[in-house]
Amino acid sequence: MLPEQIKAKIISNKRFKDNYWHLEFESGLIAGRALPGQFVNIKVSDDVEPLLRRPLSIHGTQSSKVRLFYEVLGMGTRILSNRRPGEFLDVIGPLGNGFSLPGKGHRLGGQAAILVAGGMGGAPLLFLAKKMILSKPLILIGARTKSKVLCAQEFKALGSAVKIATDDGSAGFKGRVTELLSQVLREAKNGGDLSIYACGPRPMLKAVSKIACDNNIDSQLSLEEHMACGIGACLGCVVATKSGYKMVCKDGPVFSGKELTW
Ligand SMILES: Cc1cc2nc3c(=O)[nH]c(=O)nc-3n(C[C@H](O)[C@H](O)[C@H](O)COP(=O)(O)OP(=O)(O)OC[C@H]3O[C@@H](n4cnc5c(N)ncnc54)[C@H](O)[C@@H]3O)c2cc1C
Ligand code: FES
Fold it and tell me: How many domains does the structure of the chain reveal?
């Protein structure tokens, strides 16, 4: 199904903490079709600048509302944080291929899943966890320090066990979330039955894919490449895979860890 380009009414746009914001807009079309791992591409301003749209993962949906979770980093997200409820955003979505879910040809049914979120990776993974409510995945969250740990309460509210890793040891396991993942897998009794889903910085995803392959576990990784067009026209977001170069915006952003050659 083709993505929609719509003028979506902003319902709310609130600072959550520090530079982190939640935005909700109204679109029955996007909310009705969105799958975890898919994203929207937003023209943050009606002015010419910034020219390029900014991609943001779908963090959740509720009836006709679409929820986003974003970090203000540069001009685009700063402008977005200044947009007010009642204004209209130019949004294209849902875009890309999301995570494979239980009951849609994936082997997760009845098995355990581990979700690994690094940095803003909780944005798409919370939406995924909501769709996996019956299998209650184990959540691993990685951050540099305690104040940067995101979405832990929201994952816990779904009934999932949450383990945290911080680089400086200010919360949970001291070290990288991928070291925590290795530890969890060593302790797991049913390692071969697990599936791993991850979103976060590229080095983290590369490490997750290696750990998954070494343990013969399937992994699905959501990449956050820099994008220009967002619809497969500019080749600005290619990644190397075993079957050649693929576009993150169109063929991804979710890829099998076994497929990527980094
Ligand atoms: C499929 C996809 C889904 C995404 N989902 C989310 C999300 O749910 N929440 C969220 O906060 N961010 C998400 N991002 C990243 C987000 O698109 C960028 O942070 C945003 O475009 C930055 O725009 P800006 O104008 O504020 O910053 P810019 O001025 O463009 O850049 C500021 C800084 O952010 C870095 N940056 C820019 N684009 C990206 C990118 N695509 N990935 C990583 N770093 C980037 C730049 O290198 C620079 O250091 C996603 C990216 C992709 C490709
Ligand atoms: S961003 Fe243009 S092809 Fe992906």
Answer: 2
If asked whether residues 125 and 239 sit together in one domain, one would say yes
- The answer to whether residue 232 is domain-embedded is yes
Q: What is the pTM of this model?
A: 0.94
Distance CA 4, CA 7 (A): 10
Exposure string over 127-143, b if 16+ CB within 10 A, otherwise e: bbbeebeebebbbbbbb
CATH code for the domain in which residue 42 is found: 2.40.30.10
pLDDT tens across 84-117, in order? Answer: 999 999 999 999 999 987 544 344 444 579 999 9
Q: What is the pLDDT of residue 109?
A: 43
Q: Of how many residues is the chain composed?
A: 262
Residue nearest to atom 40 of ligand 1 (CA): 226
Is the CB of 236 inside a 6 Å radius of any atom of ligand 2? yes
Q: Are residues 205 and 248 in the same domain?
A: yes
**pLDDT tens digits, one per residue of 27-58:** 999 999 999 999 999 999 999 889 899 999 99
User: How far apart, in whole angstroms, are the C-alpha atoms of residue 77 and residue 93?
Assistant: 18
- Residue 70 Cβ inside 6 Å of ligand 1? The answer reads yes
The finding on whether 234 has its CB within 6 A of some atom of ligand 2 is: yes
Position 192 scores a pLDDT of: 54
The answer to the question of residue 18 being in a domain is yes
Q: Is 45 in the pocket of ligand 1 (CB under 6 A)?
A: no
* Residue whose CB lies within 8 A of the most ligand 1 atoms, among 224, 227, 247, for a mutation test: 224
Contact between 98 and 37 under an 8 Å Cβ cutoff? The reply is yes
Domain that holds residue 87: 4-95
